[in-house]
Amino acid sequence: MFRFQSPIYLLILLIFPIVYYLFERKRKRSVIQFSALGEIKNVVTQQRFHLRWILPALRFLAFTLMVVALARPQKVDAEREYETKGIDMVLALDISGSMLAEDFKPVNRITVAKEEAKKFIKGRENDRIGLVVFARKGYTQCPLTLDYRILEELIDEVDVGIIKDGTAIGLGIGTAVNRLRESTAKSKVIILLTDGENNAGNVDPITAAELAKSFGIRIYTISIGRGGLVPFPIEDPIFGKRYVQAEVKVDEKTLKRIADIADGHYFAAGDAEALAQAYKKINSLETTEVKVKEYASYQELYRWFLIPGVLVFLLQLLLENTAFLKLP
After folding, report:
1. Which among 141, 226, 235, 264 could bridge 259 via Cys, Cβ 3.0 to 4.6 Å?
2. Phi and psi, residue 235, nearest 5°
3. Where are the beta strands (DSSP E) in the chain?
4. What sign for the dihedral angle of Cα 155, 158, 159, 165?
5. pLDDT averaged over consecutive 10-residue blocks of the chain (328 residues)?
6. For strand 187-194 and strand 240-248, is the pairing parallel, antiparallel, or unpaired?
């Protein structure tokens, strides 16, 4: 980066042309009077007379270079040191069969959940994020990572049916806790997203929440979709794809209890917009601390202007008193 330490001196360059013009105008008034100009007109003008504009040009160049040197041009080398205190978080995503419900027209719950999760990831910086999926069992789809591109690709690969059907919320939390328990981050977070009630696994969701709290892990719970009768697609070998209405129960009471135990919040997402707002709220609650220290060194550059300015001025004096010597 380039800067002037004393840029106020550059204002002289604005005043100088005016002063020089007034000086030249006054100097040209001093003339020698002749009774007749006939003989003078017959004098052959030498070629170097036409080059006398070089002298004022050299004077102006020398003056400009010296003024720039006076303003102290400097080269600034700045370095920034970032000290970040990131957050380690795990997204625990329900991929049970009920996530195929298409109450989020024109797509199903799992599609909306994956898209909003990727949007959330794009809004994070300096945070390690992992992905746990669960149905009847829970497993780690992606360990904690800063490579968000890989994480998004692994989210795209998630689908209903890769785990035997069921909703093991306790196992989902337990698997996420296992990923975070040895973390040394300033904040450890689980975002649990489900559309049902715990009906599988050998870990009680409340017990899993208490385990998370013991490791200093905060849990945000999100219920996705509406309870009650929702449309499910069925592939009929004769009539093709058709829809049936099925009962889905959302255990909001347990999800609220989990969030309360683990110092988090509960969000109800009845549609895609509500889910986006839930992630937005979590994003605002979990902020990463970034401290920036800046160091700068300055290299003086005035010599690169002062020395040429002096040389140009001396050249102007030399020409004025030799090749362009003017006699009265």
Report:
1. 264
2. -90, 105
3. 2-4, 73-85, 87-94, 128-134, 138-145, 187-194, 217-224, 228-236, 240-248, 266-269, 289-300
4. negative
5. 84 78 64 55 54 78 87 80 75 93 86 94 90 95 94 94 93 96 91 91 94 96 86 74 79 94 94 92 80 71 88 84 68
6. unpaired
> Among 132, 128, 201, which Cα is nearest to 166's?
201
Q: Which of 256, 272, 221, 261 is nearest to 102 (CA)?
A: 272
Please measure the distance between the N-terminal and C-terminal CA atoms of the chain and give it in whole angstroms.
51
Give the C-alpha separation, 310 to 308, whole Å.
5
Q: Could you tell me the CATH superfamily of domain 87-287? A: von Willebrand factor, type A domain (3.40.50.410)
Torsion from C-alpha of 55, 60, 61, 67, nearest 10 degrees:
150
303 residue type, one letter: R
Instruction: Using a cut of 0.90, tell me whether the model's pTM lies above it.
Output: no
Task: List Cα–Cα distances, 50 to 45, 55, 224, 258, in angstroms.
Answer: 8, 11, 88, 94
CATH 3.40.50.410 in the chain: give the residue spans: 87-287
